[in-house]
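Budget justification aside, the reviewers requested a transparent look at the raw inputs and outputs of the sequence design task funded under Objective 1. We therefore reproduce one unedited record. The lines immediately below are the structure tokens for a 143-residue chain.
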């Protein structure tokens, strides 16, 4: 796949590798529409509508979320899928608060909505956060 706009530098994090962009685009094409659909809650779309909106349709919303994910992944991990614990975050110290990876998600983020708990329970089978070390990289996992 040829990437042009997505190859823009993210401040001091550099340019995303094509391998990252391919994975993101592949996920974006197959992800269910309801992830991108309007909802009654304040969400990422509410925060960026002045910059990337107004939304034309569901395809536009999908593209916007993928762009947000691209930028966040650059900030959080400098494009390293195996980025370890964010040691600069003083609250990232317990199995429920440790964050690791491209989008730096911690188990306690499930408190933001019952749908997040339901999703994790459905996909993982547990709501208990824990941390595993995988050699050079470390990853957050549930269960």
């Amino acid at each position: 796949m040829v990437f042009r706009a997505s190859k823009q530098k993210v401040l001091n994090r550099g340019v995303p590798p094509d391998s990252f962009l391919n994975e993101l685009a592949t996920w974006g094409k197959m992800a269910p529409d309801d992830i991108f659909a309007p909802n009654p809650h304040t969400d990422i779309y509410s925060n960026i509508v002045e910059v990337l909106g107004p939304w034309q349709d569901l395809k536009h919303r999908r593209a916007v979320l993928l762009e947000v994910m691209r930028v966040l992944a650059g900030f959080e991990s400098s494009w390293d899928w195996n980025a370890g614990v964010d040691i600069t975050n003083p609250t990232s110290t317990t199995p429920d608060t440790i964050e690791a990876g491209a989008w730096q998600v911690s188990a306690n983020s499930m408190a933001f909505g019952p749908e997040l708990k339901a999703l994790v329970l459905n996909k993982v089978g547990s709501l208990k956060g824990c941390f595993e070390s995988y050699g050079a990289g470390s990853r957050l996992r549930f269960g």
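The first helix runs from residue 18 to 30. The mean pLDDT is 78. Computational costs for records of this kind are itemized in the attached budget.
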